[in-house]
Design brief:
By secondary structure, this protein is mainly alpha-helical. It is 80% helix and 0% strand.
Length: 196
């Protein structure tokens, strides 16, 4: 079973490499910008009109007390809008940024690592970010739906999932930087070879 899973992951990685074209990266970059410049700021403003309050899933961790203070501060209308945001908008957004990160990592790693190198599987690190993003969202949805009843254990799980999400995003950025450095070095070597 473990071998089958590893084989599946490597096949998934190979398929992602095939989709890692500049055209696809551009499409997801435009969607990413649309979400970050227009859609998400609009909904955050609707949920938290008070600038001193931030939604839970943009934080690097939060305590159970912080979670319930935030849910109380945004009021019933804010909680309803937050629920809609998590269930609809933030169910699409992880797929957008996850795809952008996976495609960008693949585009650069393909030009840095040869096909026999097992480290090519690093193009999929962002999948973990997407998975833990959804787990965080489910936890916060549960907190809102049960409010004002407390579920401190779920709040902790949502917080930990959010922290893992951010760590996985940071690791993916490191992979992209590694690929970018390798790509630049290979271009530099080729240009020097042509000069000789």
């Amino acid at each position: 079973m473990q071998r089958g899973f590893v084989h599946f992951v490597f096949r998934l990685s190979d398929r992602a490499y095939k989709q890692a074209t500049l055209k696809n990266i551009f499409i997801f970059l435009m969607l990413f910008l649309l979400f970050n410049v227009v859609v998400i700021p609009y909904y955050i403003q609707q949920i938290t009109p008070d600038a001193d309050t931030s939604i839970l899933d943009v934080r690097f961790g939060f305590s159970s007390a912080d979670a319930y203070e935030t849910l109380e501060a945004i009021g019933q209308e804010g909680r309803n809008k937050y629920l809609f945001f998590l269930a609809i908008i933030d169910s699409i957004y992880p797929l957008v940024y996850g795809s952008l990160l996976i495609l960008t990592a693949g585009f650069l790693l393909r030009r840095t690592l040869n096909e026999s190198n097992d480290f090519r599987i690093l193009n999929l690190v962002a999948i973990d970010a997407v998975i833990f993003d959804y787990l965080e969202n489910l936890g916060i949805i549960y907190l809102i739906s049960r409010y004002p009843s407390r579920a401190d254990g779920v709040a902790t799980l949502a917080s930990v999932s959010g922290m893992i999400k951010w760590i996985m995003i940071a690791l993916t950025i490191c992979v992209i930087l590694f690929g970018l450095i390798g790509y630049i070095r290979s271009k530099f070597k080729k240009s020097q070879h042509h000069l000789l």
